Amino acid sequence: MELLKKALIIEDDADIRKLLELHLKDMQFSIETAADGKQGLSMALSNPFDFIILDIMLPGMDGIDICKEIRYKNIKTPIMMLTSRSEEIDKVVALESGADDYMTKPFGTRELQARVKAILRRSPAISDGQDANKIFDIEGLHIDLGKRVVKKNNVTLSLTPKEFELIALFIQNPGKTYSRIDLLDLVWKYSYEGYEHTVNSHINRLRSKIEDDMNNPQFILTSWGIGYRFKELK
User: Fold this and answer.
1) d(Cα 121, Cα 66) in Å, to the nearest integer?
2) Torsion angles phi and psi, residue 133, rounded to 5
3) What integer pLDDT is reported at residue 155 of this predicted model?
4) What's the pLDDT score for residue 166?
5) Percent of the chain with pLDDT over 90
6) Is the CB of residue 170 less than 8 Å from the CB of residue 230?
7) Which CATH topology does 5-120 take?
């Protein structure tokens, strides 16, 4: 069978790296690996991958900085981060750096494969059917859902996958208020109860890119005490 998907594993522990490689091969991935942070970043920037598994603690360059650099280069490859520590800050920082999900070591085969499959599924923020091809033009803001392109005053914006999924969800449901838990469930695909401030951080970064004045947003509005909504469309 031809392997259609290509994964990069950046992990310095040889045993875990081999375990990940075996499990992903079972899912019909072809695999490339790196044991050093700088080497892994170079590979991620110079080759197209369908999925990246990235350890946080790495020699040469840590996973958080690698993830930020990948997203800064506007590479939208799904990223799962691994951490061997249980502190909340690791999980929060992993998500806020642009990762699509995180897992804490040790992990089980079924959990790993279920998480990978969930990340690879097309985001529910963009519905099936004609909405996936819709284009929105609102007061200088251009959103092309099919091409996953967002422009502000004809300038293409560099959005992370989660930022795009947030604005795609909002634009298709103008005026509807979503709680932070709703957004975590819909966009992150898991219930990260306790990490609602991750949503705040992503909303703030998205606003910084699409709003003229973050202190007086015109597109993504706050529903005080509840969550966020996109402005009503006329």
Assistant:
1) 24
2) -110, 10
3) 93
4) 93
5) 50
6) yes
7) Rossmann fold (3.40.50)
Name the residue with higher pLDDT: 131 or 42: 42
**Is residue 60 within 8 Å of residue 37, measured between CB atoms?**
yes
Side chain identity at 122, as an amino acid letter?
R
User: 94-137, pLDDT tens digit by residue?
Assistant: 777 888 888 888 888 888 888 888 788 754 444 444 455 688 99
Q: What is the largest CA-CA distance in the chain?
A: 57
For domain 129-230, give the CATH number.
1.10.10.10
Q: At what angle do helices 161-171 and 196-210 cross, to 10 degrees?
A: 80
